[in-house]
Amino acid sequence: MRKQIVAGNWKMHTSLQEGSALATSINKMVKNEVENKETGVVIAPPHTHLSVVNQLINTERICLAAQNCASEAKGAFTGEVSAKMLSTFGVKAVILGHSERRAYYGETNETLMKKVNLVIENNMKPIFCCGEKLEEREAGNYFDVVKEQIENVVFNLSKEDFEKVIIAYEPVWAIGTGKTASSDQAQEMHAYIRKLIVEKFGNDIADNTTILYGGSCKPSNAVELFSKPDVDGGLIGGASLKAEDFIGIINSFN
Ligand code: 13P
């Protein structure tokens, strides 16, 4: 059966000192306060903090993730950080296709495909984000939008490689807005994504694929969201920057 996961995306927040303190608190609280030891915990600090955070956490219990990687393996790409470099910092997963990167840095299906392949080649897991914008939700074509994002990238993988992918459904209108999707809206989309996976790769793989919800998830709504059968956890932005809130969300599974 698939793993339940709560992942924290710190985005471009925290100084190294603040990030170190946050990682230390999360590490301690995961050890002492997380009841279900099977729940996967992931944190994705900024690139600059990865090496230090890797030393501060129990990497057997907490998975270190990055928020992005370069679309090329190596070379003259000033300012970029390759998947291979990340893997040498102890990074085990990489968030790819976040709507902020699609919107502000022009990430396309083509660049995302290259990134997904590089992440897998370097023995890490892609946390592949998808989700519709407000106007697409209002126009009623949100299923098509998400289908297109998934089909044109992660469905190009082989079955073996697709098994390494974690999907994160993040409706853009819910990110950082305080306006979370209702649990029914989340369930509806997650069930739809799982149906697409069944059609492409079969029941076993679909059953084993973790599909996270992201967008204004906090301790007060996580219990309801995580109670839905196809919501396997969350990708958390703002609330992952407070150790107590992040732990509260991790403890929200029934
Ligand atoms: P918020 O939880 O701040 O809405 O952000 C969600 C997100 O974008 C996680 O990747």
Question: What can you see in these coordinates?
Answer:
- The chain is an alpha/beta fold.
- It has a single domain, classed as Aldolase class I (TIM Barrel, Alpha-Beta Barrel), CATH 3.20.20.
- 44% of the residues lie in helices and 15% in strands.
- It is built from 12 helices and 8 strands.
- The chain has helices at residues 16-33, 50-56, 83-88, 99-104, 109-121, 134-139, 142-151, 159-162, 183-201, 203-208, 219-226, 243-250, and strands at 5-9, 40-44, 62-66, 93-96, 125-130, 166-169, 211-214, 233-236.
- Strands 1-2-3-4-5-6-7-8 form an 8-stranded parallel β-barrel, surrounded by 7 helices.
- Helix 1 packs parallel to helix 12 and helix 11 (219-226) runs parallel beside helix 12 (243-250).
- The protein starts with a strand and ends with a helix.
- The protein binds 1,3-dihydroxyacetonephosphate (13P).
- The site of 1,3-dihydroxyacetonephosphate has 14 residues, from strand 8.
Across the major sheet, the strand order is 1-2-3-4-5-6-7-8
The computed structural class is alpha/beta
Count of helical segments? Answer: 12
Radius of gyration: 17 Å
CATH architecture: Alpha-Beta Barrel
Q: Mind summarizing the main beta sheet?
A: 8 strands, parallel, barrel
Number of strands: 8
What is the 3D form? Answer: globular
List keywords for this structure.
TIM Barrel; 12 helices; alpha/beta; 254 residues
Give the SSE layout.
Blueprint: E1 5-9, H1 16-33, E2 40-44, H2 50-56, E3 62-66, H3 83-88, E4 93-96, H4 99-104, H5 109-121, E5 125-130, H6 134-139, H7 142-151, H8 159-162, E6 166-169, H9 183-201, H10 203-208, E7 211-214, H11 219-226, E8 233-236, H12 243-250
Parallel strand pairs: 1-2, 1-8, 2-3, 3-4, 4-5, 5-6, 6-7, 7-8
Helix pairs in contact: 1-12, 11-12
